[in-house]
Design brief:
Layout lengths: L2 H27 L2 H18 L6 H13 L8 E2 L1 H4 L1 E8 L6 H9 L4 H22 L6 E5 L3 E7 L4 H9 L4 E5 L3 H14 L1 H7 E2 L9 E3 L3 H13 L7 E5 L10 E8 L4 E2 L3 E8 L7 E7 L1 H12 L6 E5 L2 E4 L10 E8 L1 H13 L6 E9 L4 H27 L1 H23 L3 E2 L1 H13 L1 H16 L4 H33 L3 H33 L24 H22 L11 E8 L7 H10 L6 E6 L8 E7 H6 L16 E3 L2 E3 L2 H4 L5 H11 L11 E9 L5 H25 L2 H24 L6 H32 L6 H11 L1 H21 L5 H60 L1
Parallel strand pairs: 1-17
Antiparallel strand pairs: 2-4, 2-16, 3-4, 5-10, 5-13, 6-7, 7-9, 8-9, 11-12, 12-15, 13-14, 16-19, 18-20, 18-23, 19-20, 21-22
Helix pairs in contact: 1-14, 8-9, 13-14, 13-15, 13-28, 14-18, 15-28, 16-17, 16-28, 17-18, 17-24, 17-26, 19-25, 24-25, 25-26, 25-29, 26-27, 26-29, 27-29, 28-29
């Protein structure tokens, strides 16, 4: 790359990254009060701003000013485990199902419980689809009880908008608007019947073609008036009065009234897609383009063709969005126009795409919940990050000296780019994500270790420093790119087939890979060129704890390694199968939600509750502070315990709360229940166990001061579809990895790499089974990280094998010798990378606390096993494949030779005759 252009690209990337990261760093410095004040100020500014049009320059200056004030929309999102959010419970009633749908269930001899179970699953999937398309990243959506859905949305941003989106029924219909004579006639009848109410609450049109309108404050009164008119027959049965959408704050505060046919000419059934775009004819408003499938489009075309030159009301959830005049036949495509702002139009498109809600849902209650891991876990993770950075920095600086300092600068740039991309893509940072970033400290130096060991080899060959540096970067670039492209292939598959946390992990993985490659091959290369060309570095000294070319016969030990691995896998998988559901943590199995209030004079931290529960056998309980207003007051907690934890603690799951046992009613900062639910012993065996366990945290030390306010069965946070998606992702990742390595190397290398990955995953899962640990989403993230790490390790060895095949071809070396030489030549890199990564993982394991203990354990086991498998599993499989291939070729050659000899003998015999 041309040096001036390279420097320009580096500075552009660094400056862009600093611009992206600035709002996040600034936002973190603000107190909660300052954040809320700033959000309120911005809301007021946006309302005033929307009242008139603005030039491009004005828009740009507003964007810059908002950025300087730490624009919340540009801040990296934090997950529920780090910042808390909103806890919402929705309820549905099967009696609200359309009569024909309810009758269909009855005809199939479904009991009410069966109907509730099926409807709950349908509603759960619909809400998941909607929330996953919304900006609230990493939500938790679970079935609760028999007819409720529990939703937790991280952060304070756009909570009302998210709630409205979840509850929106999204019923889309198209109605013909009545003629003006009919409109005047019906309003005259209403006036005659209710003259006082009509004159007081309904405003006549001022101009021809205008609508009757209703002031916002009179909406409920007029709605009741219309209902009375419908009952009394003043409004004909085949007609209805519908309101327009609510007005914007900066518009005239009135609703328009539309007199329309009750029976729609078409509905939203058969809607294929909907997308929101700016309305060029009515800026700054937006519109929604929609498309029907062919069957629905044909019906829509017939209906519109019969009503050309008539006004057609587009009605969504009972409110008229707009009423354009039909000018021509409309078939598969159309648009919904109105006074939509961008968020409204986007949410409407999401709701239409996810389909009408199967049954209306009602908001049961909404509370604020604190971070599920608490300030203690966050503090420990930060401490781990600092210690890891100090250890890795010290190691690199001591071992590689000047080159180590260059690697550290590259590491800082790498970290900056990752944070910038996370902010740009609006990614969510959870505690496993923080741990993953800490792990990046160890893994990001891998490319530098590869480069520096190559430079060391070039210097040993007697090359000048500039030549050694150049050759080191060029020759290691192929290996680095091969290793990272395979990781990107896996990430692309995860992104394509994955949803929710899997998709988020894929984006994080891609971002980390791209940033690491750029930092190592571009930034560090530029720094080296600058230092060498300016003669700041005249020689490059490095320590060497490992001989340059050891001669360890790794491949001769392959059958011992195979036996060792087979024993570990068989034992681990046998215990895994024997434990069954006990292997699964709170994210994957049904559990119990318990709302607890602890009477104490002192504030109690979630960490203290979590540790106390762990001592009673509930080691994986999720604990969150909760309140209607301020989570820092009241010592009220939402505790979730997995079914497997309940069984292991010797308890039985509680009976889910039902309507007969009392409805929740919110009053101030407490939840009022019936006597059975609010009593000190309410909640069954599990409730009593929780009370006894937490009694030590109360001011009296008595279980009676631990109040079980509510207790319900809750479904898994990770649904069956997400588990299926995860398995599908891993399968297709392996397929595409094999294909890529087949293209870049040979088929046997791809198969060997994937077998090594499967080996690493099985041993990690087996280790958790043997240690009686449970698998949660943090462990899944760790396993996906292990796959990337192990693959990277294996490809480094394979790349050296490919290089040595060319170097030693025709020199009498056996295939086993070349494999051994390649493993030994990359041994220093393998050990150094494993060490730097293990430094960070061990720090996580020791100082990270109970919240990420299992995550760190999975990484610890995976990194050790991944390093082992790249030497003792992947390479021996390649050797065995090669030996079998050679034996087959020899056998075929022997058969061909034997056939030729027989033919020659037959010819000679014929000659004698």
């Amino acid at each position: 790359m041309n040096i001036p252009y390279r420097a320009l690209i580096i500075w552009v990337v660094i400056i862009w990254s600093m611009v992206q990261v600035y709002p996040t760093l600034g936002w973190l410095t603000l107190s909660d009060e300052a954040r809320q004040a700033r959000l309120e100020k911005w809301r007021h500014e946006d309302d005033e701003w929307a009242k008139k049009k603005h030039s491009y320059t004005e828009e740009m200056f507003k964007t810059i000013r908002r950025w300087a004030e730490f624009d919340r929309d540009r801040v990296i999102n934090l997950g529920l485990d780090l910042q808390g959010g909103v806890h919402m419970v929705l309820r549905f009633d099967i009696n609200d199902l359309p009569p024909e749908r309810l009758q269909e269930y009855k005809d199939r001899r479904y009991s009410d419980a069966d109907i509730e179970k099926e409807v709950q699953e349908i509603v759960l999937q619909q809400i998941r689809r909607r929330v996953n398309e919304f900006e609230a990243k990493e939500p938790v959506i679970q079935a609760l009880g028999n007819n409720q859905i529990q939703i937790q949305l991280p952060g304070e941003k756009n909570v009302e908008r998210a709630k409205n989106l979840v509850k929106k029924t999204a019923q889309l219909n198209f109605h013909i608007v009545a003629e003006m004579t009919d409109i005047i006639q019906v309003f005259q009848k209403i006036k005659d019947k209710y003259p006082d109410e009509f004159n007081a609450f309904i405003q006549r049109p001022k101009l021809k073609g205008d609508h009757f309108t209703v002031r916002v404050e009179n909406y409920d009164r007029v709605r009741r008036l219309i209902e009375s008119c419908e009952k009394e027959g003043i409004i004909p049965e085949d007609k209805m009065l519908a309101f327009s959408q609510p007005p914007k704050p900066y518009e005239d505060q009135v609703y328009k009234l539309y007199y329309i046919d009750r029976k729609p000419i078409a509905s939203g059934d058969g809607l294929r897609s909907a997308v929101a775009i700016p309305d060029q004819n009515n800026p700054p408003n937006w519109k929604i383009l929609f498309e029907f499938n062919n069957a629905a489009g044909a019906l829509f075309g017939e209906a519109t063709e019969k009503n050309i030159n008539k006004a057609m009301a587009i009605v969504l959830d009972g409110m008229v969005c707009s009423a354009p005049v039909i000018r021509d036949r409309i078939t598969t495509r159309g648009e919904i126009t109105g006074n939509f702002e961008q968020p409204e139009a986007t949410d409407l498109a999401i709701a239409l795409n996810s389909g009408s809600m199967f049954v209306p849902v009602k908001e049961e209650f909404t509370r604020i919940v604190g971070a599920s891991l608490g300030a203690d876990a966050v503090h420990k993770s930060v401490t781990s990050a600092v210690i890891s950075l100090i250890i890795v920095s010290g190691f690199m600086a001591v071992y590689y000296m000047w080159a180590g300092l260059v690697a550290l600068i590259g590491l800082v740039v790498n970290f900056l780019i990752i944070l910038a991309l996370m902010a740009y893509f609006e990614m969510t940072l959870t505690l496993p994500g923080v741990a993953g970033l800490i792990l990046t400290i160890g893994m990001a130096v891998d490319a530098n270790v590869l480069i520096y060991e190559r430079i060391r080899e070039e210097l040993k060959l007697g090359h000048a420093l500039a030549t050694a540096v150049s050759n080191g970067f060029v020759r290691s670039a192929v290996t680095i790119l091969d290793a990272n492209i395979t990781t990107l292939i896996a990430a692309a598959v995860l992104l394509q087939f994955g949803t929710g946390p899997i998709e988020g992990f894929a984006i994080t993985l891609s971002v980390g890979v791209c940033a690491s490659v750029f930092a190592a091959l571009v930034v560090c290369r530029a720094l080296f060129d600058f230092l060498v060309n300016r003669r700041f570095i005249k020689s490059l000294n490095m320590l060497s704890f490992i001989p340059m070319k050891p001669k360890i016969p790794f491949l001769q030990l392959r059958y011992y390694a195979f036996t060792f691995s087979a024993v570990l896998i068989v034992i681990g998988m046998a215990i895994f199968a024997w434990r069954g559901k006990e292997n699964l943590g709170v994210d994957f199995v049904q559990g119990t939600n318990i709302n607890v209030q602890i009477n104490s004079d002192q504030p109690i931290q979630p960490g203290a509750v979590r540790e106390t529960l762990a001592k009673s056998g509930f080691g994986k309980a999720i604990v969150q502070l909760t309140s209607e207003e301020d989570v820092s007051a009241g010592n009220r907690f939402l505790v979730r315990i997995a079914e497997t934890d309940i069984k292991s603690a010797g308890n039985v799951p509680p009976t889910p709360s039902t309507a007969s046992s009392g409805e929740n009613t919110v009053s101030g900062n407490t939840v009022a229940m019936t006597a059975s639910a609010t009593s000190g012993t309410g909640g069954g065996d599990i409730g009593q166990t929780i009370q006894k366990a937490l009694a030590s945290l109360t001011k009296t030390g008595k279980p009676e001061d631990v109040v079980i306010e509510d207790q319900q069965t809750v479904g898994p946070a990770v649904g069956a579809q997400l588990r299926t998606d995860a398995l599908k992702c891993i399968f297709w990742s392996f397929v595409f990895i094999i294909v890529y390595l087949w293209f870049r190397f040979e088929l046997k290398f791809g198969v060997a790499a994937v077998v090594a990955l499967i080996h690493d995953v099985l041993i990690t899962l087996g280790t958790f089974a043997v240690l009686r640990r449970q698998i949660d989403m943090g462990v899944i993230a760790a396993i996906l990280t292990i796959i990337g790490y192990s693959l990277n390790d294996t490809i480094v060895v394979f790349d050296r094998v490919r290089e040595n095949m060319k170097l030693y071809r025709g020199k009498g070396y056996k295939y086993m010798d070349i494999l051994n030489i390649s493993i030994n030549e990359t041994l220093s890199r393998t050990i150094l990378t494993a060490l730097t990564t293990l430094f960070t993982v061990v720090v996580l394991f020791i100082f990270g606390g109970i919240a990420i203990h299992d995550f760190a354990l999975a990484l610890l086991v995976g990194i050790i096993v991944g390093t082992y498998s790249s030497i003792f599993i992947a390479s021996p499989i390649v050797l065995i494949w090669q030996e079998k291939s050679e034996q087959r070729q020899l056998r075929l050659a022997g058969q061909a030779k034997t056939g030729t000899a027989k033919k020659a003998t037959q010819v000679k015999a014929g000659a004698k005759i």
